[in-house]
Here is the input.
Amino acid sequence: MATAEQYRNQASSLSYRNQAFIGGKYVPAASGETFDCVSPIDGAVLTSVASCDKEDVDAAVKAARAAFESGVWSEMDPRDRKQALLRFAAAIADHREELALLETLDMGKPITFAQSVDIDGVVSTVQWYAEAIDKIYDEIAPTGRDAIGMITREPLGVVATVVPWNFPLLMGAWKFGPALAAGNSIIMKPAEQSPLSALRLAEIAAEAGIPDGVFNVVPGFGEKAGQALGLHMDVDMVAFTGSTEVGKYFLKYAADSNMKHISLECGGKTPNIVFNDCKDLDAAAMGSGMGVFFNTGQVCVASTRLLVQEDIHDEFVEKVKKVAETMQPGDPLDPATLMGSMVDVDQMERVKSYIEIGEKEGASLVQGGKQVRQNTGGAYVEPTIFDKVDNSMRIAQEEIFGPVLSTITFRDEEEAVRIANDTIYGLQACLWTDDLNRAHKVARRLKAGTVNVNDTDGGDITVPFGGYKQSGIGRDKSLHAYDKYTQLKTTYIKLS
Here is the structure.
Protein backbone atom coordinates (compact mmCIF):
# COMPACT_ATOMS: atom_id res chain seq x y z
CA MET A 1 0.00 0.00 0.00
CA ALA A 2 1.19 3.51 -0.82
CA THR A 3 2.14 6.12 1.78
CA ALA A 4 0.04 9.15 2.68
CA GLU A 5 2.37 11.35 0.63
CA GLN A 6 2.06 9.08 -2.38
CA TYR A 7 -1.73 9.15 -2.12
CA ARG A 8 -1.68 12.94 -1.96
CA ASN A 9 0.43 13.04 -5.10
CA GLN A 10 -1.94 10.64 -6.85
CA ALA A 11 -4.92 12.73 -5.76
CA SER A 12 -3.39 15.88 -7.20
CA SER A 13 -3.07 14.24 -10.62
CA LEU A 14 -6.55 12.68 -10.81
CA SER A 15 -8.92 13.67 -13.59
CA TYR A 16 -12.56 13.53 -12.56
CA ARG A 17 -15.47 12.28 -14.66
CA ASN A 18 -18.11 14.87 -13.91
CA GLN A 19 -20.84 14.38 -16.54
CA ALA A 20 -23.75 11.97 -16.72
CA PHE A 21 -23.10 8.65 -18.46
CA ILE A 22 -26.03 7.86 -20.74
CA GLY A 23 -26.15 5.41 -23.63
CA GLY A 24 -22.43 4.69 -23.49
CA LYS A 25 -21.11 8.25 -23.42
CA TYR A 26 -20.58 11.19 -21.10
CA VAL A 27 -23.01 14.06 -21.56
CA PRO A 28 -23.64 17.33 -19.67
CA ALA A 29 -26.94 17.91 -17.92
CA ALA A 30 -29.53 19.11 -20.42
CA SER A 31 -30.00 22.26 -18.33
CA GLY A 32 -26.27 22.89 -18.20
CA GLU A 33 -26.49 23.07 -14.41
CA THR A 34 -23.75 21.71 -12.16
CA PHE A 35 -23.04 21.41 -8.45
CA ASP A 36 -19.75 21.55 -6.58
CA CYS A 37 -18.30 18.28 -5.36
CA VAL A 38 -16.54 19.19 -2.11
CA SER A 39 -14.06 16.96 -0.28
CA PRO A 40 -14.79 16.67 3.46
CA ILE A 41 -11.09 16.02 4.04
CA ASP A 42 -10.20 19.70 3.70
CA GLY A 43 -13.23 21.50 2.23
CA ALA A 44 -11.67 21.78 -1.22
CA VAL A 45 -13.85 21.75 -4.34
CA LEU A 46 -12.81 18.69 -6.35
CA THR A 47 -14.86 19.41 -9.46
CA SER A 48 -18.28 20.56 -10.66
CA VAL A 49 -20.67 17.72 -11.49
CA ALA A 50 -23.63 17.64 -13.86
CA SER A 51 -26.86 18.28 -11.97
CA CYS A 52 -29.38 16.03 -13.70
CA ASP A 53 -33.12 16.46 -13.62
CA LYS A 54 -36.21 15.02 -15.35
CA GLU A 55 -34.96 15.60 -18.91
CA ASP A 56 -31.72 13.74 -18.23
CA VAL A 57 -33.57 10.92 -16.49
CA ASP A 58 -35.88 10.64 -19.52
CA ALA A 59 -32.82 10.27 -21.76
CA ALA A 60 -31.28 7.65 -19.50
CA VAL A 61 -34.52 5.65 -19.32
CA LYS A 62 -34.86 5.83 -23.10
CA ALA A 63 -31.32 4.49 -23.56
CA ALA A 64 -31.83 1.77 -20.94
CA ARG A 65 -35.16 0.69 -22.46
CA ALA A 66 -33.73 0.57 -25.98
CA ALA A 67 -30.84 -1.59 -24.82
CA PHE A 68 -33.19 -3.90 -22.95
CA GLU A 69 -35.64 -4.34 -25.80
CA SER A 70 -32.83 -4.96 -28.28
CA GLY A 71 -31.84 -8.05 -26.31
CA VAL A 72 -28.16 -7.17 -26.54
CA TRP A 73 -27.88 -7.85 -22.79
CA SER A 74 -31.26 -9.16 -21.64
CA GLU A 75 -31.24 -12.04 -24.14
CA MET A 76 -27.51 -12.70 -24.14
CA ASP A 77 -26.51 -16.31 -23.60
CA PRO A 78 -26.12 -16.72 -19.80
CA ARG A 79 -22.57 -17.97 -20.22
CA ASP A 80 -21.63 -14.88 -22.25
CA ARG A 81 -23.28 -12.54 -19.75
CA LYS A 82 -21.32 -14.29 -17.02
CA GLN A 83 -18.04 -13.74 -18.86
CA ALA A 84 -18.89 -10.07 -19.45
CA LEU A 85 -19.52 -9.50 -15.73
CA LEU A 86 -16.33 -11.36 -14.83
CA ARG A 87 -14.41 -9.01 -17.17
CA PHE A 88 -16.15 -6.10 -15.44
CA ALA A 89 -15.06 -7.39 -12.03
CA ALA A 90 -11.49 -7.82 -13.25
CA ALA A 91 -11.49 -4.28 -14.65
CA ILE A 92 -12.70 -2.91 -11.30
CA ALA A 93 -9.86 -4.77 -9.60
CA ASP A 94 -7.39 -3.25 -12.07
CA HIS A 95 -8.60 0.22 -11.06
CA ARG A 96 -8.81 -0.63 -7.36
CA GLU A 97 -6.51 2.11 -6.10
CA GLU A 98 -8.02 4.84 -8.29
CA LEU A 99 -11.60 4.01 -7.27
CA ALA A 100 -10.64 3.81 -3.60
CA LEU A 101 -8.96 7.20 -3.85
CA LEU A 102 -12.10 8.69 -5.38
CA GLU A 103 -14.18 7.27 -2.52
CA THR A 104 -11.79 8.70 0.07
CA LEU A 105 -11.59 12.15 -1.50
CA ASP A 106 -15.32 12.31 -2.06
CA MET A 107 -16.66 11.18 1.31
CA GLY A 108 -13.70 11.13 3.71
CA LYS A 109 -13.35 7.44 4.57
CA PRO A 110 -9.87 6.10 5.37
CA ILE A 111 -8.05 4.93 2.24
CA THR A 112 -7.23 1.57 3.86
CA PHE A 113 -10.90 0.73 4.29
CA ALA A 114 -11.86 2.24 0.93
CA GLN A 115 -9.67 -0.38 -0.70
CA SER A 116 -10.04 -3.42 1.54
CA VAL A 117 -13.74 -3.06 2.38
CA ASP A 118 -15.35 -1.02 -0.39
CA ILE A 119 -13.60 -1.75 -3.67
CA ASP A 120 -12.57 -5.31 -2.82
CA GLY A 121 -16.18 -5.86 -1.79
CA VAL A 122 -17.42 -4.52 -5.14
CA VAL A 123 -15.11 -6.89 -7.02
CA SER A 124 -16.20 -9.95 -5.03
CA THR A 125 -19.89 -9.00 -5.33
CA VAL A 126 -19.79 -8.67 -9.11
CA GLN A 127 -17.80 -11.91 -9.38
CA TRP A 128 -20.25 -13.77 -7.16
CA TYR A 129 -23.33 -12.74 -9.13
CA ALA A 130 -21.54 -13.40 -12.41
CA GLU A 131 -20.79 -16.94 -11.31
CA ALA A 132 -24.42 -17.43 -10.28
CA ILE A 133 -25.80 -16.66 -13.73
CA ASP A 134 -25.39 -20.14 -15.25
CA LYS A 135 -26.12 -21.98 -12.03
CA ILE A 136 -29.67 -20.81 -11.34
CA TYR A 137 -32.31 -23.16 -12.73
CA ASP A 138 -35.94 -22.54 -13.55
CA GLU A 139 -38.67 -24.88 -12.32
CA ILE A 140 -41.23 -27.42 -13.48
CA ALA A 141 -44.42 -27.52 -11.45
CA PRO A 142 -45.68 -30.86 -10.05
CA THR A 143 -48.66 -31.09 -12.41
CA GLY A 144 -50.63 -34.10 -13.51
CA ARG A 145 -49.52 -36.06 -16.59
CA ASP A 146 -51.85 -34.08 -18.85
CA ALA A 147 -50.01 -30.75 -18.42
CA ILE A 148 -46.60 -29.13 -18.03
CA GLY A 149 -46.24 -26.08 -15.82
CA MET A 150 -43.01 -24.19 -16.48
CA ILE A 151 -41.89 -21.47 -14.05
CA THR A 152 -39.27 -19.21 -15.59
CA ARG A 153 -37.47 -16.07 -14.48
CA GLU A 154 -37.37 -13.03 -16.74
CA PRO A 155 -35.55 -9.73 -16.12
CA LEU A 156 -37.75 -6.84 -15.02
CA GLY A 157 -36.46 -4.34 -17.57
CA VAL A 158 -35.20 -0.91 -16.50
CA VAL A 159 -33.96 -0.83 -12.91
CA ALA A 160 -33.02 2.40 -11.11
CA THR A 161 -30.54 2.00 -8.27
CA VAL A 162 -30.50 4.96 -5.90
CA VAL A 163 -27.48 4.53 -3.65
CA PRO A 164 -26.20 6.30 -0.52
CA TRP A 165 -23.03 8.27 0.14
CA ASN A 166 -21.57 6.15 2.94
CA PHE A 167 -20.55 3.20 0.74
CA PRO A 168 -21.06 4.63 -2.76
CA LEU A 169 -19.86 1.69 -4.86
CA LEU A 170 -20.34 -1.20 -2.43
CA MET A 171 -24.02 -0.44 -1.82
CA GLY A 172 -24.31 0.14 -5.56
CA ALA A 173 -22.78 -3.27 -6.34
CA TRP A 174 -25.21 -5.02 -4.01
CA LYS A 175 -27.88 -3.74 -6.41
CA PHE A 176 -26.34 -3.53 -9.88
CA GLY A 177 -24.58 -6.90 -9.41
CA PRO A 178 -27.74 -9.04 -9.28
CA ALA A 179 -29.70 -6.63 -11.50
CA LEU A 180 -27.17 -6.96 -14.32
CA ALA A 181 -26.77 -10.69 -13.74
CA ALA A 182 -30.52 -11.10 -14.24
CA GLY A 183 -30.35 -9.26 -17.59
CA ASN A 184 -31.72 -5.84 -16.68
CA SER A 185 -30.55 -2.42 -17.83
CA ILE A 186 -29.73 -0.09 -14.97
CA ILE A 187 -29.67 3.60 -14.17
CA MET A 188 -27.54 4.39 -11.13
CA LYS A 189 -28.23 7.60 -9.20
CA PRO A 190 -25.34 8.22 -6.78
CA ALA A 191 -25.80 10.51 -3.82
CA GLU A 192 -24.93 14.12 -4.56
CA GLN A 193 -22.32 14.00 -1.79
CA SER A 194 -20.32 11.21 -3.49
CA PRO A 195 -20.86 10.88 -7.25
CA LEU A 196 -17.28 10.54 -8.52
CA SER A 197 -16.62 6.80 -8.18
CA ALA A 198 -19.93 5.86 -9.83
CA LEU A 199 -19.21 8.12 -12.80
CA ARG A 200 -15.79 6.54 -13.27
CA LEU A 201 -17.25 3.05 -12.85
CA ALA A 202 -19.59 3.61 -15.79
CA GLU A 203 -16.63 4.14 -18.08
CA ILE A 204 -14.93 1.02 -16.71
CA ALA A 205 -18.11 -0.96 -17.40
CA ALA A 206 -18.14 0.19 -21.02
CA GLU A 207 -14.46 -0.64 -21.45
CA ALA A 208 -15.13 -4.12 -20.05
CA GLY A 209 -17.77 -4.75 -22.71
CA ILE A 210 -21.05 -3.93 -20.98
CA PRO A 211 -23.20 -2.79 -23.94
CA ASP A 212 -24.19 0.85 -24.41
CA GLY A 213 -27.36 1.74 -22.54
CA VAL A 214 -27.09 -1.15 -20.08
CA PHE A 215 -25.14 0.79 -17.43
CA ASN A 216 -26.13 4.46 -17.05
CA VAL A 217 -25.29 6.97 -14.30
CA VAL A 218 -27.22 10.18 -13.61
CA PRO A 219 -25.76 12.36 -10.84
CA GLY A 220 -27.93 14.95 -9.20
CA PHE A 221 -30.09 15.78 -6.22
CA GLY A 222 -32.73 13.52 -4.75
CA GLU A 223 -35.56 16.00 -5.17
CA LYS A 224 -34.86 16.21 -8.91
CA ALA A 225 -33.09 13.17 -10.36
CA GLY A 226 -34.21 10.78 -7.62
CA GLN A 227 -37.82 11.90 -7.76
CA ALA A 228 -37.84 11.73 -11.57
CA LEU A 229 -36.72 8.11 -11.43
CA GLY A 230 -39.30 7.29 -8.77
CA LEU A 231 -42.14 8.81 -10.80
CA HIS A 232 -41.04 7.64 -14.24
CA MET A 233 -43.64 5.54 -16.03
CA ASP A 234 -41.04 3.46 -17.85
CA VAL A 235 -38.86 2.51 -14.87
CA ASP A 236 -39.77 -1.00 -13.75
CA MET A 237 -38.05 -0.97 -10.37
CA VAL A 238 -36.29 1.32 -7.90
CA ALA A 239 -33.79 -0.23 -5.52
CA PHE A 240 -32.99 2.31 -2.82
CA THR A 241 -30.66 2.51 0.16
CA GLY A 242 -30.90 5.53 2.42
CA SER A 243 -33.00 7.08 5.14
CA THR A 244 -36.42 5.81 6.14
CA GLU A 245 -37.85 9.25 5.40
CA VAL A 246 -36.72 9.17 1.76
CA GLY A 247 -37.62 5.50 1.41
CA LYS A 248 -41.23 6.40 2.11
CA TYR A 249 -41.14 8.92 -0.73
CA PHE A 250 -40.29 6.14 -3.17
CA LEU A 251 -43.32 4.16 -1.99
CA LYS A 252 -45.43 7.24 -2.76
CA TYR A 253 -43.75 7.72 -6.13
CA ALA A 254 -44.55 4.12 -7.07
CA ALA A 255 -48.20 4.61 -6.10
CA ASP A 256 -48.39 7.87 -8.05
CA SER A 257 -46.88 6.37 -11.20
CA ASN A 258 -46.82 2.82 -12.55
CA MET A 259 -46.75 0.72 -9.35
CA LYS A 260 -43.12 -0.08 -10.05
CA HIS A 261 -41.33 -2.59 -7.86
CA ILE A 262 -39.69 -0.98 -4.83
CA SER A 263 -36.89 -2.39 -2.71
CA LEU A 264 -35.84 -0.38 0.34
CA GLU A 265 -32.90 -0.69 2.72
CA CYS A 266 -33.45 2.13 5.16
CA GLY A 267 -32.39 3.32 8.59
CA GLY A 268 -31.33 1.44 11.68
CA LYS A 269 -30.69 1.84 15.39
CA THR A 270 -28.86 -1.38 16.16
CA PRO A 271 -28.99 -2.72 19.72
CA ASN A 272 -25.72 -4.32 20.83
CA ILE A 273 -26.40 -6.47 23.91
CA VAL A 274 -23.53 -7.56 26.16
CA PHE A 275 -24.46 -10.22 28.73
CA ASN A 276 -22.47 -10.88 31.89
CA ASP A 277 -21.65 -14.44 30.76
CA CYS A 278 -19.48 -13.08 27.94
CA LYS A 279 -16.01 -14.09 29.07
CA ASP A 280 -13.94 -12.17 26.51
CA LEU A 281 -15.00 -8.62 27.30
CA ASP A 282 -11.95 -7.24 25.51
CA ALA A 283 -13.11 -8.77 22.22
CA ALA A 284 -16.65 -7.55 22.88
CA ALA A 285 -15.37 -4.04 23.59
CA MET A 286 -13.30 -3.97 20.41
CA GLY A 287 -16.24 -5.23 18.38
CA SER A 288 -18.57 -2.73 20.03
CA GLY A 289 -16.20 0.16 19.35
CA MET A 290 -15.63 -0.77 15.72
CA GLY A 291 -19.34 -1.43 15.37
CA VAL A 292 -20.20 2.19 16.06
CA PHE A 293 -17.09 4.17 15.10
CA PHE A 294 -16.16 2.40 11.84
CA ASN A 295 -16.76 4.67 8.83
CA THR A 296 -17.27 7.48 11.37
CA GLY A 297 -20.54 5.92 12.44
CA GLN A 298 -21.98 6.53 8.98
CA VAL A 299 -23.29 2.97 8.68
CA CYS A 300 -26.93 1.91 8.64
CA VAL A 301 -26.16 -1.05 10.91
CA ALA A 302 -23.90 0.91 13.29
CA SER A 303 -24.25 -0.52 16.79
CA THR A 304 -25.31 2.79 18.29
CA ARG A 305 -27.24 1.42 21.29
CA LEU A 306 -24.95 -0.44 23.69
CA LEU A 307 -27.01 -2.49 26.17
CA VAL A 308 -24.80 -3.73 29.03
CA GLN A 309 -25.87 -5.99 31.89
CA GLU A 310 -25.68 -4.00 35.09
CA ASP A 311 -23.06 -6.01 36.99
CA ILE A 312 -20.43 -5.59 34.22
CA HIS A 313 -21.46 -2.10 33.16
CA ASP A 314 -18.64 -0.01 34.66
CA GLU A 315 -15.89 -2.39 33.59
CA PHE A 316 -17.21 -2.72 30.05
CA VAL A 317 -17.82 0.97 29.40
CA GLU A 318 -14.25 1.68 30.46
CA LYS A 319 -13.00 -0.86 27.93
CA VAL A 320 -15.06 0.70 25.14
CA LYS A 321 -13.72 4.13 26.06
CA LYS A 322 -10.17 2.83 25.59
CA VAL A 323 -11.14 1.54 22.12
CA ALA A 324 -12.56 4.97 21.26
CA GLU A 325 -9.30 6.61 22.28
CA THR A 326 -7.47 4.58 19.63
CA MET A 327 -9.88 5.69 16.89
CA GLN A 328 -9.44 9.44 16.87
CA PRO A 329 -10.02 11.08 13.47
CA GLY A 330 -6.98 11.40 11.26
CA ASP A 331 -5.98 12.14 7.68
CA PRO A 332 -8.10 9.82 5.49
CA LEU A 333 -5.21 9.57 3.01
CA ASP A 334 -2.92 8.12 5.68
CA PRO A 335 -3.05 4.29 5.57
CA ALA A 336 -2.72 4.21 9.38
CA THR A 337 -5.93 6.20 9.94
CA LEU A 338 -8.85 4.21 11.37
CA MET A 339 -11.45 6.98 11.40
CA GLY A 340 -11.80 9.73 8.82
CA SER A 341 -14.16 12.64 8.34
CA MET A 342 -17.91 13.00 8.16
CA VAL A 343 -19.23 13.10 4.59
CA ASP A 344 -19.74 16.87 4.67
CA VAL A 345 -20.19 19.86 6.95
CA ASP A 346 -23.97 19.45 7.02
CA GLN A 347 -23.68 15.92 8.39
CA MET A 348 -21.07 17.06 10.90
CA GLU A 349 -23.43 19.78 12.16
CA ARG A 350 -26.25 17.24 12.41
CA VAL A 351 -24.09 15.00 14.59
CA LYS A 352 -23.01 17.92 16.77
CA SER A 353 -26.66 18.90 17.25
CA TYR A 354 -27.49 15.39 18.49
CA ILE A 355 -24.60 15.54 20.95
CA GLU A 356 -26.13 18.74 22.33
CA ILE A 357 -29.53 17.04 22.47
CA GLY A 358 -28.06 14.12 24.44
CA GLU A 359 -26.57 16.46 27.03
CA LYS A 360 -29.83 18.40 27.35
CA GLU A 361 -31.79 15.14 27.77
CA GLY A 362 -29.64 14.28 30.78
CA ALA A 363 -27.34 11.62 29.37
CA SER A 364 -23.79 11.59 30.74
CA LEU A 365 -21.13 12.48 28.17
CA VAL A 366 -18.15 10.30 29.11
CA GLN A 367 -16.07 10.46 25.94
CA GLY A 368 -15.57 12.86 23.03
CA GLY A 369 -18.35 15.10 21.80
CA LYS A 370 -16.25 17.69 19.98
CA GLN A 371 -15.37 18.74 16.48
CA VAL A 372 -11.65 18.18 15.87
CA ARG A 373 -8.99 18.90 13.22
CA GLN A 374 -10.66 22.24 12.57
CA ASN A 375 -7.46 23.66 11.12
CA THR A 376 -7.77 21.29 8.13
CA GLY A 377 -11.02 22.79 6.86
CA GLY A 378 -12.56 19.32 6.95
CA ALA A 379 -15.54 17.81 8.78
CA TYR A 380 -14.29 15.76 11.73
CA VAL A 381 -16.03 14.68 14.95
CA GLU A 382 -14.32 12.57 17.61
CA PRO A 383 -15.78 9.28 18.89
CA THR A 384 -18.50 10.10 21.39
CA ILE A 385 -19.90 7.96 24.20
CA PHE A 386 -22.98 8.73 26.29
CA ASP A 387 -23.74 6.77 29.45
CA LYS A 388 -26.86 6.69 31.65
CA VAL A 389 -29.05 6.82 28.55
CA ASP A 390 -32.74 6.01 28.74
CA ASN A 391 -34.08 4.28 25.65
CA SER A 392 -36.81 6.90 25.31
CA MET A 393 -34.24 9.65 24.67
CA ARG A 394 -33.90 10.99 21.15
CA ILE A 395 -30.26 9.92 20.95
CA ALA A 396 -31.43 6.34 21.57
CA GLN A 397 -34.40 6.45 19.19
CA GLU A 398 -33.32 8.53 16.19
CA GLU A 399 -30.71 7.61 13.62
CA ILE A 400 -27.82 10.03 14.09
CA PHE A 401 -25.51 8.54 11.45
CA GLY A 402 -22.35 9.57 13.23
CA PRO A 403 -19.84 8.32 15.82
CA VAL A 404 -22.20 8.62 18.79
CA LEU A 405 -22.81 5.70 21.18
CA SER A 406 -25.66 5.52 23.69
CA THR A 407 -25.04 3.19 26.65
CA ILE A 408 -28.07 1.65 28.39
CA THR A 409 -28.03 -0.65 31.42
CA PHE A 410 -30.30 -3.69 31.74
CA ARG A 411 -30.99 -6.17 34.57
CA ASP A 412 -31.89 -9.42 32.83
CA GLU A 413 -32.58 -11.08 29.50
CA GLU A 414 -36.21 -10.06 29.44
CA GLU A 415 -35.41 -6.37 29.88
CA ALA A 416 -32.61 -6.54 27.31
CA VAL A 417 -34.94 -7.91 24.64
CA ARG A 418 -37.65 -5.38 25.49
CA ILE A 419 -35.25 -2.43 25.17
CA ALA A 420 -33.65 -3.83 22.02
CA ASN A 421 -37.00 -4.15 20.23
CA ASP A 422 -38.27 -0.76 21.43
CA THR A 423 -37.50 1.08 18.18
CA ILE A 424 -39.14 1.74 14.82
CA TYR A 425 -36.14 0.10 13.15
CA GLY A 426 -35.18 -3.52 12.68
CA LEU A 427 -32.16 -3.73 10.42
CA GLN A 428 -29.66 -5.47 12.67
CA ALA A 429 -29.11 -6.53 16.28
CA CYS A 430 -26.05 -7.92 18.07
CA LEU A 431 -25.51 -9.91 21.24
CA TRP A 432 -22.48 -11.17 23.13
CA THR A 433 -22.82 -14.32 25.21
CA ASP A 434 -21.01 -17.61 25.85
CA ASP A 435 -24.31 -19.39 26.48
CA LEU A 436 -25.39 -21.16 23.28
CA ASN A 437 -28.97 -21.60 24.52
CA ARG A 438 -29.23 -17.90 25.29
CA ALA A 439 -27.78 -16.99 21.91
CA HIS A 440 -30.45 -18.96 20.05
CA LYS A 441 -33.32 -17.91 22.30
CA VAL A 442 -32.52 -14.20 22.25
CA ALA A 443 -31.77 -14.16 18.51
CA ARG A 444 -35.24 -15.55 17.82
CA ARG A 445 -36.86 -12.80 19.89
CA LEU A 446 -34.96 -9.87 18.37
CA LYS A 447 -36.91 -8.10 15.62
CA ALA A 448 -34.14 -7.58 13.09
CA GLY A 449 -33.21 -8.78 9.62
CA THR A 450 -29.75 -9.78 10.81
CA VAL A 451 -28.72 -10.89 14.30
CA ASN A 452 -24.99 -11.08 14.96
CA VAL A 453 -23.82 -13.29 17.82
CA ASN A 454 -20.41 -12.37 19.29
CA ASP A 455 -19.85 -9.96 16.42
CA THR A 456 -21.16 -6.59 15.25
CA ASP A 457 -20.80 -6.90 11.48
CA GLY A 458 -20.98 -10.53 10.46
CA GLY A 459 -22.08 -11.99 7.16
CA ASP A 460 -20.86 -11.99 3.59
CA ILE A 461 -22.36 -11.94 0.10
CA THR A 462 -23.90 -15.42 0.64
CA VAL A 463 -26.44 -14.24 3.24
CA PRO A 464 -29.38 -11.84 2.71
CA PHE A 465 -29.34 -8.34 4.16
CA GLY A 466 -32.34 -6.15 4.91
CA GLY A 467 -34.67 -5.06 7.66
CA TYR A 468 -37.82 -5.52 9.66
CA LYS A 469 -40.26 -2.70 10.44
CA GLN A 470 -39.26 0.74 9.10
CA SER A 471 -35.80 -0.46 8.11
CA GLY A 472 -37.09 -1.47 4.72
CA ILE A 473 -38.58 -3.95 2.28
CA GLY A 474 -36.71 -6.70 0.46
CA ARG A 475 -33.18 -8.04 0.75
CA ASP A 476 -29.79 -7.25 -0.75
CA LYS A 477 -27.03 -9.87 -1.14
CA SER A 478 -27.38 -13.64 -1.63
CA LEU A 479 -29.53 -15.32 -4.29
CA HIS A 480 -32.59 -13.79 -2.65
CA ALA A 481 -31.51 -10.45 -4.13
CA TYR A 482 -31.38 -12.03 -7.59
CA ASP A 483 -35.03 -13.00 -7.25
CA LYS A 484 -36.21 -9.41 -6.76
CA TYR A 485 -34.72 -8.31 -10.09
CA THR A 486 -36.73 -10.92 -12.01
CA GLN A 487 -40.35 -11.66 -12.78
CA LEU A 488 -41.71 -15.19 -12.38
CA LYS A 489 -43.60 -16.34 -15.45
CA THR A 490 -45.84 -19.40 -15.51
CA THR A 491 -46.27 -21.17 -18.85
CA TYR A 492 -48.97 -23.84 -18.51
CA ILE A 493 -49.09 -26.31 -21.41
CA LYS A 494 -52.08 -28.61 -21.77
CA LEU A 495 -51.06 -31.93 -23.27
CA SER A 496 -53.48 -33.79 -25.56
